[in-house]
Amino acid sequence: MTMEFSTQSRRAGVRGFLHCMGLASLLALGAASNAQAWEEWEDEADNPIQAQCYRVERWGDGYNLEQVGSVTVHSNQQAALICNNVEYACRGRCIACAHDYDYYEDICVDMSGRQFVKP
């Protein structure tokens, strides 16, 4: 491994992290302002949840969600991280959403673990 590759990898990682932080800010503005703390998705090993992975693309002042796949998760806190690690098309820009039958809405989680109603 050369030092140049290591530096490029580090820069790409920093850029990806900063991009995710910008994405989280964008989603915070678009999420419902009265969103409350949602119940934890089922986290028992015998009752996993199927979550959809959505890549968030910016379009001018708004954004677009494109479904790129789905994953099976046991915890909502890591669902977006799993999407971004499993789905190549995510490239660090995905959120994970699953249907919450208590609220009859899709609840999403971003890379920071923040939950919100699917926009």
Give a verbal description of the structure.
By secondary structure, the chain is of the alpha+beta class. The chain has one domain. The chain is built from two helices and five strands, in the order αββαβββ. Strands 2-1-3-4-5 form a five-stranded antiparallel β-sheet, covered by helices on one side. A hairpin with a 5-residue loop joins strand 4 and strand 5. The protein is globular and about 40 Å long. The N and C termini lie far apart (43 Å). Mean pLDDT is 74; it is low at 1-5 and 23-38.
Quick description:
With 119 residues, the chain is an alpha+beta fold. It has helices at residues 3-30, 79-86, and strands spanning 49-59, 62-73, 94-100, 105-109, 115-117. It has one domain (3-117).
List keywords for this structure.
disordered N terminus; 2 helices; 5-stranded antiparallel sheet; signal; alpha+beta; single chain; 119 residues; 5 strands
Low-confidence stretches: 1-5, 23-38
First-to-last CA distance: 43 Å
Biggest beta sheet summary: 5 strands, antiparallel
The total of beta strands comes to 5
The ordered H/E elements are HEEHEEE
Number of spatially distinct domains: 1
Q: Count of DSSP helices?
A: 2
Signal peptide: 1-37
Keywords: Signal
What's the layout of helices and strands?
Layout lengths: L2 H28 L18 E11 L2 E12 L5 H8 L7 E7 L4 E5 L5 E3 L2
Antiparallel strand pairs: 1-2, 1-3, 3-4, 4-5
